[in-house]
Target: Cyclin-Q
Amino acid sequence: MEGPSFSLPVTRIRPLWLAPGRRGSAGDAESDRELKTHFRVCRFIMETGVKLGMRSVPVATACVLYHRFFERVKLQAYEPYLVAMSCVYLAGKVEEQHTRTRDIINVSHRYFNSGSAPLECDKEFWDLRDSVVQCELLILRQLNFQVSFEHPHKYLLHYLLSVKSLVNRHAWSRTPIAETSWALLRDCYHGALCISHTPQHIAVATLHLALNSYGVELPVGEKEWWQVLCVDVTKADIDSVISDLLQLYDMEAKCI
Model:
């Protein structure tokens, strides 16, 4: 990389609760191991975001920052949990919900050490804080400062309101379509499908899967409901998103 040099935070600070994992063998085994790592780290981002009181969009931005970063660099070169902490910090700035580095560090520490007291403001703490900030600069440079993203959230909200008007209100109240759709959308951020599909297609696919899961049928017209809401989406696009999401659920089972 070009530009001013600085010591890489991931190699300089490794507290015990950020200990790196073992490197895997080449081939599919290593790829599978990396996917598991990314899944676990994104879950860490989401749980950390909840404990920090972050809204859903800043948390989603943190996950996208994480996936975009490791789209460009090798996992073995950087401590993924430290990158995740920096992504949470940066996402708070991008989405105007600024979170203090001290809070991020303490919440992360308790994530790995349940019930432990906050870290002392000693040299290790300040070194880690400096590492988070320096890693933030590294992420910005790797992403060429392109850190604003369009998320599926606003599209899903619009699609839900449109579909609700087509469904019998008693049938809608009996089935948690909205809650399930939002849960599926959140799960999409555990993997790279959140950056490999367009926001509109993800929104349509999560709603489509939620409707099918509860057997809710919409009135039949000249076009499918999803063609009316999103003119450029095809059934193949929907199936592709759902397939990637189901693979994430398979990954979750492997991570238990």
